[in-house]
Write a structure and sequence with these properties.
The protein is mainly α. The chain has one domain. The mean pLDDT is 76.
Length: 128
Amino acid sequence: MKTPPQQDREDRAVDALVAAALRQAEFNEPSDEEIQKFLANVPPMSPEGKAALDALGPDIVQRITQASSRQSPSARATQAEEELSPLYMAMNRKNASGEMDARTKEELEKKRKEALERIKNRKKQRGK
C-alpha cells in the first residue's frame, strides 16, 4: 500500500500531466510575430488571382465570418469538443480498468470548461 505522501505526489504528477495536455493546444498556435513574418514573405498576387478575388465582392470576409457565426450553439460546442478530444488522453493509473473517481471527473470537467472558454475567447479576439 502506498503511503499518503507518495499518493499525494502521484496525484500532483497526474494533475500536472492533465494540465500540460490541456495547455498543449495553446502552444500550437502561431504568434502574431510568426504571422507577420509569414505575411511579409507572401508573393504578389497575379492579375488572374486579383480578378478572381475582386469577383468575390468587397464583403467576402464579412460573409464568411457571418456564415460561421450562424452555426447553432450545439454545433460550435461539438466543434470545440472535437478540437480538444486529443487532449483527454491522460491515464488514470489508480483505477485503469474502471471509472474515474468523482473528484477526478469533477476536476477534468472543470479543466475542460476552462479550456473551452479560453478557445472561445481566443476566437472572439481574432474576430475583432
